[in-house]
Amino acid sequence: MGKKRKWPAVYLAIVFAVLYAPIFYLMFYSFNSGGTMYSFEGFTLDWYREVFQDTRLLIIVLNTVIIALLSALISTIIGVFGALAIMYVRTQRTKNTLLSLNNVLIVSPDVIIGASFLILFTFIGIKLGFVSVLLAHIAFSVPIVVIMVLPKLQEMSPTLIDAARDLGASRLDVLTKVVLPYITPGIFAGFFMALTYSLDDFAVTFFVTGNGFTTLSVEIYSLARQGISLQINALSTLIFLVTLGLVTGYYFISKRSGGLAGMGVRK
After folding, report:
1. For residues 202 and 239, what is the distance between their CA atoms, to the nearest angstrom?
2. What's the CA gap between 174 and 156, in Å, rounded?
């Protein structure tokens, strides 16, 4: 029995080692003073200093953060109302259709989505740049927010809304004072997930960026094509740490959401 219990742990350890070994290898050599990834000659922070001294790169970082925050905020607002619409639609058939359309956008290949947006923006005359990237990021983030918010809506007891209406609450009061406070953990989780996806996205962004505007993921790809530079390692390490922080925030929000749900059940 003891050996059987050890095998799943060993298997998981191997899987995580395969997944994270390249990342830690990249992070390790971001501190290499030798300038290559073949031998570690000594510890240095010069590559990180180069990142923070590169004005063009800092502008690209600012562009990426602005796009991520704006797209996450707008997609969260749209996604919340979308989840409400799906939840309270009258017929089950219509609800299933809307859910299927939402899920199709999540599972569709990024290359297909990016190429579709490129064709659309070219056809309607939207110049590729800030606006095109923002619209594309909002589009692929909305379904993620819907998936995050919808379970919280499904957990909410209808008696809460009925009680609020019996007490004389208007539809707006029910929405702002009952529904939204209850699903707040799901809203924050959707926001953080949308933010993470926007920061990390490459495939869709690659299709809809234009001359003079780019994001970090596209810039890293361009730098990597020019040759190996440990500045790429340093920049990738910083992005990984930021993403890790966002995922950790999402984990604690999800944990808090579960705890609040448990408290509601006990009450």
Report:
1. 13
2. 13
Categorize the per-residue pLDDT at 135 as very low, low, confident or very high, splitting at 50, 70 and 90. Answer: very high
Dihedrals φ, ψ of 43, to 5°? -85, 135
pLDDT tens string 26-36: 888 888 887 77
User: How many Å apart are CA 32 and CA 223, to the nearest integer?
Assistant: 18
The residue count of the chain comes to 267
Token pair listed for 132: 């095109």
Predicted local distance difference test score (pLDDT) of residue 228: 65
Give pairs for 240-246: CB < 8 Å, separation 24+: 240/23, 240/27, 242/199, 243/196, 243/199, 243/200, 246/192, 246/195, 246/196, 246/199
Which of 107, 67, 71 lies closest to 219, judged by CA?
67
CA 162 to chain CA centroid, Å, is: 35
**Per-residue confidence band for 263, with pLDDT thresholds at 50, 70 and 90:** very low
Phi, psi of 151 (to 5 degrees): -60, -35
Q: What domains can be seen in the chain, in order of their start residue?
A: 50-266 (1.10.3720.10)
Q: Give the span between the Cα atoms of 188 and 246, in whole angstroms.
A: 11
Q: Which residues pair with 98 in a beta bridge?
A: none
Of 19-28, 143-152, 246-255, the poorest mean pLDDT is in 246-255
Measured CA to CA, the distance from residue 62 to residue 56 in angstroms comes to 10
- How far, in Å, CA of 185 to CA of 254, rounded? 7
> Residue 265 is which amino acid?
V
At 169, which amino acid appears?
A: A
